[in-house]
Amino acid sequence: MGAVGLLYVGAVLFINGLMLLGKVDLRAAGIFNLFVGALQVITPTVLIITANGRPDVILNASGIFLFGFTYLYVGIGLLGGFDTTGIGYFSLFVAIMALGYAFANFRVLNDRPFAVIWLYWSFLWLLFFLLLGLKRDHLTTYTGWVTAIEGWVTAAIPAFLILIGYWQRWNQNVIATLLLVFGVVVFGALWPLTRKRGALSSRAGPAGGETIAAR
């Protein structure tokens, strides 16, 4: 059941990434955030109720609420036009807790691929804090690309592979290593590329496209 929710986390991250890149309307993205946010609150609630006290199931399910509340918060904020400071600082909380869940997956659950995936999420939610909480608008394009990519790499693809039974067949250490290398290389390469593009857009002025405020 958790894999089903994770699949749609991939979808909402992809949509939110495109929104930050100016490709999706704010209100349109807000509606989808509400759908996935509700799903990611209902899913862990059901998992915990039916866990029969199993600590591993409860531990895994508890982390899902972090994302459910994020998407509900984002959806309401986008539709209501609210200031982003609140969701920004909540994202800092999520980024810190994600480090704890990464440790728990590595040491307690012995799930190294998802330990790395939690590190991905910690990095992404840190970017949300910087962008939305501290208003570092120059990070908009970079954060948009990271969000869209993580939607596939950390959620949609793993969820689909879990659902069809392929994820468990592969060597978990190899998956974790590939994820770690991919994240460092791709997100490291994106930084100078998006900074250069942002600088060109700024020099272009109004002809350079939508302003960050308009997004």
Question: How would you portray this structure in words?
Answer:
- With 215 residues, the protein is mostly helical.
- The protein has a single domain, classed as AmiS/UreI transporter (Serine Threonine Protein Phosphatase 5, Tetratricopeptide repeat, Alpha Horseshoe).
- It contains 7 helices and no strands.
- The chain has helices spanning 2-20, 26-49, 55-80, 85-107, 112-133, 140-163, 172-204.
- The model is unreliable at 199-215 (pLDDT under 50).
From the 3D structure, determine the CATH topology.
Answer: Serine Threonine Protein Phosphatase 5, Tetratricopeptide repeat
Question: How helical, in percent, are the residues?
Answer: over 70%
Domains, number: 1
CATH architecture: Alpha Horseshoe
CATH superfamily: AmiS/UreI transporter
How large a portion of the residues is in β-strands, by DSSP E?
Answer: under 5%
Mean pLDDT: 91
Span between termini: 34 Å
Shape: globular
Class derived from helix and strand content: mainly alpha
Radius of gyration: 17 Å
- Helix count, DSSP H or I runs of 4 or more residues: 7
Order of helices and strands: HHHHHHH
Q: What is the number of strand segments?
A: 0
How does the major sheet shape up? none
The CATH top-level class label: Mainly Alpha
Weakly predicted, low-confidence segments: 199-215
